[in-house]
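Re-run with default settings, no changes from the original entry. Doing this only to confirm the output is reproducible before filing.
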Amino acid sequence: MGVISEFKEFAIKGNVIDMAVGIVVGAEFNKIVQSVVSDLLMPPIGMLVGKVDFKDLFIDLSHSGARSLAEAKSSGAATVNYGNFITESIHFLIMAFAVFLMVKGINRLKRQEAAEAPVAPAADAAAPKP
């Protein structure tokens, strides 16, 4: 069997195609979660804690006197960007919760299918008793 035919067999298998679809859908789902965090959750949270944009929270290790993260980055100052860490942590928690809900739903469907599946009678039970 040639390399090309082996690759074709590998690429056409359902698992590879399912995995590719999952990766594409997962990447797009990530964009939605990122938007939920950045556009819907962080602005109200920022307003509650004093009109703060979390992505602009940083510690200037170089003591350059930069007033914003963009200014510090443009001057080459060393910074600890803890605001971005907060945003990414919230993003992770939402993503993990969404994946948890999906797995929970899939497991529930699997349990329902297993409960609804007809149970085949055992060979011993089908035999007439003397």
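The radius of gyration is 27 Å. The mean pLDDT is 81.
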